[in-house]
Amino acid sequence: MGRGSHVCSVLGSVLLLLCLGSAAAQKSSTWKTLSGDAPLVIAKGGFSGLFPDSSDFAYESAPGAALWCDVQLTKDSAGICLPNINMDNCTFTPTAYQSDVKTYNVNGVSVKGLFPMDYKITDLLNNVYLKQAILSRTARFDGLTIVPVEDVLSKYKAPAVWLNVQYDIFYSQFNLSMRNYILSVSKQYVVDYISSPEVNFLKSLLGRVSKKTKLVFRFLDEHTVEPSTNQTYGSMLKNLTFIKTFASGVLVPKHYILPVTQDNYLQPHTSVVDDAHKAGLEVYAADFANDFLLSYNYSYDPLTEYLSFINDGAFSVDGVLTDFPITPSEAIGCFSNLNNSKIDHAKPLVISHNGASGDYPDCTDLAYQKAVADGADVIDCPVQVTKDGIPICMSSIDLGDVTTIATSQFASQTTIIKDIKDTAGVYSFNLTWDDIVKNLKPMISNPMLKYNMYRNPRNRNAGNFMRLSDFLAFAKGNDLSGIMINVERAAFMAEKLGFGVVDAVIKALDDSGYSKQTAQKVMIQSTNSSVLVKFKQQTKYNLVYMIEENVKDAAPSSVADIKKFADAVSVTTMSIYPATDLFLTNQTNGLVQTMQSAGLPVYVYVLMNEFPSQPYDFFSDATQQINAYVKRQSGVDGLITDFPGTAHRYKLNSCMNMGNSLPGFMIPAKPGGLIESMLGAAQPPTLAPMPPLTESDIVEPPLPPVNNSTASAPSSHAAIRMRTDVSILVTLMLCAAALMI
Ligand SMILES: *[C@@H]1O[C@H](CO)[C@@H](O)[C@H](O)[C@H]1NC(C)=O
Ligand SMILES: *[C@@H]1O[C@H](CO)[C@@H](O)[C@H](O)[C@H]1NC(C)=O
Ligand SMILES: *[C@@H]1O[C@H](CO)[C@@H](O)[C@H](O)[C@H]1NC(C)=O
Ligand SMILES: *[C@@H]1O[C@H](CO)[C@@H](O)[C@H](O)[C@H]1NC(C)=O
Ligand SMILES: *[C@@H]1O[C@H](CO)[C@@H](O)[C@H](O)[C@H]1NC(C)=O
Ligand SMILES: *[C@@H]1O[C@H](CO)[C@@H](O)[C@H](O)[C@H]1NC(C)=O
Ligand SMILES: *[C@@H]1O[C@H](CO)[C@@H](O)[C@H](O)[C@H]1NC(C)=O
Ligand SMILES: *[C@@H]1O[C@H](CO)[C@@H](O)[C@H](O)[C@H]1NC(C)=O
Ligand SMILES: *[C@@H]1O[C@H](CO)[C@@H](O)[C@H](O)[C@H]1NC(C)=O
Ligand SMILES: *[C@@H]1O[C@H](CO)[C@@H](O)[C@H](O)[C@H]1NC(C)=O
Ligand SMILES: *[C@@H]1O[C@H](CO)[C@@H](O)[C@H](O)[C@H]1NC(C)=O
């Protein structure tokens, strides 16, 4: 609280209201940390999720966070920051150094490589360059120089510096004293935190460093043996009063607090935070990174993970050690203590994509229930048809993509249908609704499969299939601002299946009462203008034209064309933020503005939480990506997403209406910013300019009439004929009744 109110008193009266606003917000969220202050964000080696750990770039890019340095010593007793004692892992070394490769026993583990204490500092600063040690991260910032500890203490003006001494006993074998080194820098600079997994090292500093320096005991894996006491870290956890004799805090792997099962589901939290707080120890949690596999309970959303450590209601840790400092800063600054049940259906609309398909199989009852529970404003149904002419909600016309058909008795009933794709498939129109419901199960979609990322495996086949009529009945009973029905392949269905999908959708809406109500907006989305033209002729529904291609802008004539048949457009993420090799380019984009000034709201598709779906500029953080689409000059009007919960929570964040006083971590990414900061040779290839949208992309021939002579007809006219028969029957009965009177 102190820091906040100080800033307010310095600022002029114009800003006072804003200050009061944020101060009030802070008051209502008294933190459950030991001190009551907001938790500390500790940037491990700086912003090491993006830049090489402990590099100048990484340290410069973590404003507001405490900077963490893994202290290593050189032959001449200088200190450098390097995440690993084995330089092979995190640096490029000259080939001449390869003859120095050694194998050392490092605290009981045999390690082969190159070690800092075998070199003088000048040899390291001049000849050795940092590289990204995590292979899944970008290597485009590799080649930066090593940073001396003194630089971290003085150069970056960090709010706090945290020195971690991972090895003391090991260095002492080389007659290098970590203690002497740390004491000497502590005399010259303010060192806010010193951590170590070695008890005797921390004890040796007791009373020798400033009273303001916090000594933190670092717990390693439970089964690892602490070298000065010969006890495992797991057993030491039971003796916190002992820890308190030499430390003011503990740093523990995050699974000490929230353990996960072997298949990566969260278990109830342990009592570690409570126990430590009772013992008067602060608790810092380690191992946070946005791009490591998170527990499935977090739906691939790292912000949710942080919130569970700082905002759970039961406890808050005192700080988090992370490779991605931006995300916990957001969590602490703008997302704690939100009331997630608040729904106002304000812009931007949160539109589900196949329901909450990030958590449940596409278009199942569970996916829709979750979407509504997560605060979606609009839920969606992509319409397909069964053999018996029943419109259903299914994200793919090929049952192999989204059901268990491959292991069913229908697996071999494949056909090649060139209008759909070149390879064989079993299609929704090949099976009756009964066949589908009785024999198949839904299957969760896995769009990030090539990165070996699977969506919630326990929900893999959960939920039930939905007919369009089931969907409408469900939607109608919920607090939604609307529904979105996607119609594709209408021409194919008419010609080859004899199914008039537009008429079928209109009929389903009529039957469910949607045509007569105004509480929920009915949106019809299609990539084919002829579908929307047909709807426009027959209904007053809200028509959304989905632009499939990545386009830079739209020619005025094309906008005029779109206006003739659509009320809104949906565009790809790339059309708004072009990227090359996963970096945003500085291509300017006028599409959103062009459409909006023509009175067409713009929805962006498809947003996902999984980090490989995002350019690096969004920091592997779905919230940053959403922020960029919403907070840009012309913000989008809707977010079409597999994870409606993340988008809805974004809308509630307490920094949403801060205007120009947005905290730094909520200022949207500058397109091209990361590319600019790369060395020329590392820059990705320039993106060929994307084409603008033109008239010829838009105008389509009208839908063909429904082919009523389809032999192997699924078919709708069979169903319609039957209904006709029924109505004839009813008419006959009425006539009969009339005659009898
Ligand atoms: C470096 O070490 C980390 C942590 O042990 C490991 O995940 C990574 O794969 C290693 N990188 C290289 C290039 O060996
Ligand atoms: C460390 O110092 C001791 C005593 O001065 C000496 O005997 C030993 O050889 C030195 N070890 C190394 C690795 O320099
Ligand atoms: C720890 O154990 C090792 C081997 O088990 C032993 O050599 C050493 O003396 C022990 N150290 C302490 C402090 O007990
Ligand atoms: C805690 O650790 C200290 C030092 O190792 C030891 O003397 C004490 O007996 C331990 N207490 C318990 C309850 O294990
Ligand atoms: C995590 O998800 C699993 C499966 O849905 C559930 O059983 C478990 O209770 C969840 N864990 C927590 C801490 O909510
Ligand atoms: C959260 O919002 C809902 C809906 O607006 C409201 O009913 C509820 O009282 C709110 N809860 C709190 C704790 O403010
Ligand atoms: C699937 O449906 C199409 C269109 O009706 C039909 O041509 C094809 O023969 C069907 N495939 C099978 C295996 O029945
Ligand atoms: C950014 O855009 C400007 C003008 O549009 C262009 O001159 C410049 O080369 C671009 N820079 C990069 C790195 O693409
Ligand atoms: C759009 O529908 C028309 C029929 O109305 C069809 O001829 C055309 O091929 C369709 N366009 C695309 C891109 O599918
Ligand atoms: C098929 O459609 C044509 C034109 O709409 C119509 O004249 C004909 O009677 C229909 N045939 C059947 C069997 O419904
Ligand atoms: C209508 O369906 C019949 C039977 O499947 C087929 O032979 C004919 O080509 C179809 N007509 C069109 C225009 O596709």
From TrEMBL:
Catalyses which reaction?
a sn-glycero-3-phosphodiester + H2O = an alcohol + sn-glycerol 3-phosphate + H(+)
Q: Which GO terms describe its molecular function?
A: glycerophosphodiester phosphodiesterase activity
Q: Which GO terms describe its biological process?
A: glycerol metabolic process; lipid metabolic process
* Pfam families assigned to the protein according to its UniProt record, in alphabetical order: GDPD
Q: Which N-terminal stretch is annotated as signal sequence?
A: 1-25
InterPro entries (alphabetical) = GP_PDE_dom
Give the top-level enzyme category.
hydrolase
Give the enzyme's EC designation.
Answer: 3.1.4.46
Q: Where is the GP-PDE domain?
A: 39-332, 348-651
Q: Which keywords describe this protein according to UniProt?
A: Glycerol metabolism, Glycoprotein, Hydrolase, Signal
Which PANTHER family does this one have? GLYCEROPHOSPHODIESTER PHOSPHODIESTERASE, GLYCEROPHOSPHORYL DIESTER PHOSPHODIESTERASE
- What is the protein name stated in its UniProt record? glycerophosphodiester phosphodiesterase
